[in-house]
Amino acid sequence: MMLTLTKIKTASRRLILLPLLTGLPLSALSAPATEHGSRSLDQQLRARLNNHNVTQVTPPPSQPPALVALGRNLFFEKEISGRRNISCATCHNPLLGSADGQSQSRGQGAIGLGPARRQNGDEYFQFLPRNTPSLWNRGVAQWTTMFWDGRLGGTPETGFFSPAGAATPQNFSSALAAFTIIPVTPDEEMRGFPGQTDIFGQANEMSELGNEDFVQIWDLVTARVTAHDGYNDLLANAFPGVPESELDISHIGEAIGAFMTDEFTALNSPFDLYLKGNNKALSKRAKRGALLFYGRANCVNCHSGGLQTDLDFHNIAAPQVGTGRGDAAPLDLGRGAITQDPADNFKFRTPSLRNVELEAPYFHNGAYAKLADAVRHHLDPQTSLANYDATQIEPELSGMFVNDADTINTLLTTLSPKLSVSGDPLSEREINQILAFLSALTDPGSLNKLNVVPDQLPSGLSLAD
Ligand code: HEC
Ligand code: HEC
Asked: Which CATH class is domain 65-265?
């Protein structure tokens, strides 16, 4: 038995050497070997990962437990929303892959959780213009760009920018922490519309302000938190030596950021184990899928690095379905609306594909309900747009689908040239291999997050909806 194995190994080593011995050009060595060829699947894949600098992701530093404990309560805390009815977890539900399972998210004026969340009777309601992203690995150091259009970001070294402009606090430890103070400001998200009372029928002191009154809103949110005795100890433990009068929104943000970093770092997928050197961590099918992803299918052109994102912006001609955003509605110009450069129109930040299986529906507007269809779209955007079936998204949004010839033409003329499959189109079998690879990006620890949910909140508000 041993002997046979040794023989085989020697034979295959000879095969690898063969081109050199026979004087074949060196390039023949790097030519893609077939699965029956001389190089094993693992050798091929490891070489390709190496070529593309795909290495183990450095986890963020461990977060101070007292800061995480405070942040955990604040993440589920409805007291920080104008009407005391919405928390971060309403949309970033840890039991739903840290998102909400909706194409576009529903904030004020809606009720219910996850896919069941709907407008609350005839309350004034407005969709958020985009799909709720998941929060996996946002605390990793390289993650410095937030939002589908990158309108917030930075590092402690470069400083932070955000929709709050000059009012953006600069004392955060990460872009993730800098992000946390933004969702409380828009009326349709957490703050509430004028005239809408809170769940106890009391006036909402934030509702008459404008979306741009960042500092006033932040002060009111901070006051809501410090007013509850239940938060005194949590705050004192998280910020020892800082008197209550000196606490501001950046303390609240830092705590929520620490919680998300602690809870949503997900770097224990089969692919991570493979990157650590365990060849058995991936199935053959997933390895073949990875070879395509990092090879012929060129997914790595944008989904690069350990987190499968270059954090850059590209137009892949997503179907223009849903409400759209801003002046361009019912279209969404994405990055173009931020830079005001038409060349950036329809570009969105490349999503990380970590835990992507848990993240349906897909794209910035949740256009695709199924992962396979989101992948297929990349392979032939033109056909995908022509055949797009809007009934796969919520009925209130499916009617808002812009597919006139002009729009389709504009979408396709600025399509990213990085979107390309080398050689023949992918077969069904190859698409399934890519899907098997995407599956191997799921961290099993992300599947059950029930233990994250606090038993009760310092404000006494209900966790149910
Ligand atoms: C009503 C639903 C809703 C609520 C409530 C909400 N979010 Fe979000 N969140 C979204 C949507 C939608 C986006 C994407 C918006 C965009 O890109 O234009 C987003 C984006 C994010 C991002 C950026 C992720 C990335 O990769 O770009 C983070 C981080 C985040 N939210 C954290 C929070 C925190 C913390 C809270 C509570 C303070 C919160 N969210 C409250 C819906 C919500
Ligand atoms: C030109 C850059 C580019 C290339 C190449 C590319 N993608 Fe994407 N991908 C994107 C962008 C940008 C989005 C988001 C589009 C949007 O929201 O409108 C996306 C979205 C996705 C999504 C949905 C993720 C989510 O959270 O919504 C999946 C899955 C995906 N890509 C897989 C792939 C696969 C597999 C390949 C190779 C066959 C690939 N991509 C090639 C840029 C690219």
From this structure: mainly alpha
CATH topology for 298-420 is Cytochrome Bc1 Complex; Chain D, domain 2 (1.10.760)
Tokens 């149910």 found at: 464
The closest ligand to the CA of 349 turns out to be 2
Q: At what angle do helices 249-264 and 214-226 cross, to 10 degrees?
A: 80
pLDDT for the residue numbered 38: 58
> Average of pLDDT values for 224-247?
96
Residue 271: count of CB within 10 angstroms of its CB: 26
Q: Is the CB of 292 under 6 A from ligand 1?
A: no
Query: Which of 216, 209, 230 is CA-nearest to residue 79?
Result: 230
pLDDT higher than 80, residue 405: yes
Evaluate if residue 26 carries a pLDDT over 70. Answer: no
For the CA of 128, the nearest atom of ligand 1:
12
HEC sequence for 21-46: HCCCCCHHHHCCCCCCCCCCHHHHHH
Three-state SS sequence of 377-441: HHHCHHHHHHCCCHHHCCHHHHCCEECCHHHHHHHHHCCCCCCCCCCCCCCHHHHHHHHHHHHCC
Does the Cβ of 271 fall within 6 Å of ligand 1? no
From residue 26, how far is each of 17, 19, 44 by CA, in Å? 11, 8, 16
Structural tokens at position 50? 């190496």
Which sign does the torsion angle of CA 99, 102, 103, 108 carry?
negative
Domain boundaries, the chain: 65-265, 298-420
Structure-token pair, residue 438:
């995407």
CA 35 vs CA 19, 75, 291, 391: distances in Å: 18, 48, 11, 40
The structure's pTM equals 0.92
* Interval between CA 132 and ligand 1 midpoint (Å): 6
Q: Please measure the distance between the N-terminal and C-terminal CA atoms of the chain and give it in whole angstroms.
A: 63
Angle between helical axes of 284-293 and 428-439 (0-180°, round to 10): 100
Mean pLDDT score of the chain: 92
Cβ neighbours for 414, distance < 8 A, ≥ 6 positions apart: 315, 343, 345, 346
CA-to-CA distance for 182 and 214, rounded, in angstroms?
A: 8
